[in-house]
Amino acid sequence: MAAGSVFLVGAGPGDEGLITVKGLSLIKKADVILYDRLVNPLLLEYAREDAERIYCGKLPDRHHLRQDAIQQIMVDKAKQGCSVVRLKGGDPGMFGRVGEEAAALKEHGIFYEIVPGITAGMAAPLYAGVPITHRDYSGSFAAVTGHRKTEEGQPSPDWKSLAKGVDTIAFYMGVKNLPLIAENLLKHGKAAETPVIIIEWATTGRQRTVKGTLAAINHEAQKEKVQNPAITLVGDVAGLNSQLAWFESRPLHGKYVWLVKTASSRSTIAEKLKIDGAEVIEAPRFEVISSEHPLPANLSSFNKIIFTSPESVDFFFEALKKKRIDIRSITADFVGKTKRVQTQLESLGIFSNKEMSGEKVLEVGEEDSLTKKNTSYNFWISHEVKKRKLTENTLGRLITDNVINTVVFPCAKAVKNAEIELKQHNIEPVEWFRSKSVICYGTKSRKAAQAAGISVNAVLAEPNAEKLLQYLYQTPEMVL
Ligand code: SAH
Predict the structure, then answer these.
(1) Least confidently predicted of 21-30, 111-120, 403-412, 461-470
(2) Active-site residue, 58 included
(3) Which of 183, 206, 372, 382 has the most CB atoms within 10 Å of its CB?
(4) What is the 3 state secondary structure string of the chain?
């Protein structure tokens, strides 16, 4: 097999939108994706359904072991001819060990490319309303690891140069060593009143900022229980946060919504929620695949053709085209089973009838949607709907990370689907839902939820995106 290639790609700091166009297009094409713990799981949704995904956060935890294992997998997969994407948080060159990985690939003669990403030390300040340089406050910037150790196990940058020579400093991996960082900067001459801002889980729905002066920041961080991942930004620019902050004040910031799906179509609701600052997963997701069943031969003999979904209309017309059957040869009445199907038919210039009964009826749709009990109907299975494994995995990851705080059931069937997904990941639904805000579109979904033992926080006055947004605006997010 031809030799493969490896792409060392920066995934950006968290917000799904902060990956490069090049990085995203490589994800879409990859055969194998190795990804780190801090990479937004939603980015993997763009991968091919059959792409192999390897979570490096789960590999052996001892640092050198993990690094060796990752490098070995990349080399092996590339030698098998795969296109491999190594997806790393932020920028691969910023405390990302890309140097070691590239060296290993070079050593094995494997073709590689490195794709930059937006690093947390630059994105986090901007998402907190802080530019790292500013004409009045800062003309220089340093990115420093708070992790590199002296023999005594303390961070070991050149404190004097940092304190005296750099206006803005971003510390990565420094939460644990914050007391030492502050102490050393003060000792080497940084002013005690220098503003400091710590940005936790920057660019995600979990973003939180904690502020203080250099002298007081450690106290503040302890009080607020700041945790990794976080960037600690030291410098006068940090003071601009109070005027320029924008991200955390968006109306749905902090809401992580699971829109439980029952059909293959993507909703427009997700986009609306995201614009206002929510994070959203639509799951389960389904792929629609055309069926192997041939069209019935005698289409012109039917009096009525019933379509059960918009997709069934598409596949029917596609099949006609393939067989070069002119639509005008079909004299049957067309029936759209739901409003969405009727709209789809209208977009093709067909005004559908709503009357389902009659003689010589052909029903078209995926197998489960067909009115099997009515034996007088003829059927054509137009397509199959398959659940995407990929989305199931992504959802599993979000459940494990405990980030979802809001669940929306647009219909009764969604309740069943949510239960199936949770059980798939060995989660007991009733218990899991207890800490979530549960929103139902109407009374049918509410009854289904309650029958499943799930307590419902809200039923929308009308089943639409506007009412959902209105409700979400009014409720503070639940603390997990
Ligand atoms: N290559 C990455 C950094 C890897 S080191 C980059 O360019 O961003 C990991 C450290 O990066 C974390 O300990 C934390 O200090 C920082 N970091 C990564 N993502 C972050 C985020 N979303 N918010 C705050 N800090 C983050």
Answers:
(1) 461-470
(2) yes
(3) 382
(4) CCCCEEEEEECECCCCCCCCHHHHHHHHHCCEEEECCCCCHHHHHHCCCCCEEEEHHHCCCCHHHHHHHHHHHHHHHHHCCCEEEEEECECCCCCCCHHHHHHHHHHCCCEEEEECCCCHHHHHHHHCCCCCCECCCECCEEEEECCCECCCCCECCCHHHHHHHCCEEEEECCCCCHHHHHHHHHHCCCCCCCEEEEEECCCCCCCEEEEEECCCHHHHHHHCCCCCCEEEEECHHHHHHHHHCCCCCCCCCCCEEEEECCCCCCCCHHHHHHHCCCEEEEECCEEEEECCCCCCCCHHHCCEEEECCHHHHHHHHHHHHHCCCCHHHCCCEEEECCHHHHHHHHHCCCCCECCCCCCCEEEEECHHHCCCCCCCCEEEECEEEEECHHHHHHHHHHHHCCCCCEEEECCHHHHHHHHHHHHHCCCCHHHHHCCCEEEECCHHHHHHHHHCCCCCCEECCCCCHHHHHHHHHHCCCCCC
pLDDT of residue 479: 47
Distance from the CA of 231 to the center of ligand 1, in angstroms? Answer: 7
Binding site membership of 7 for ligand 1 (Cβ less than 6 Å) = no
Q: What is the pLDDT of residue 475?
A: 78
Ligand 1 centroid vs 52 CA: distance in angstroms?
25
Ligand 1 centre distance from Cα of residue 273 (Å)? 26
Highest average pLDDT, of 51-60, 260-269, 386-395, 467-476, comes from: 386-395
Mean pLDDT of 448-457: 96
199 CB less than 6 Å from ligand 1?
A: yes
Domains and their CATH numbers in the chain: 5-118 (3.40.1010.10), 122-249 (3.30.950.10), 256-285+388-478 (3.40.50.10090), 288-385 (3.40.50.10090)
Residue 480 predicted with pLDDT over 50: no
Q: Does ligand 1 lie within 6 Å of residue 229's CB atom?
A: yes
Position 156 scores a pLDDT of 80
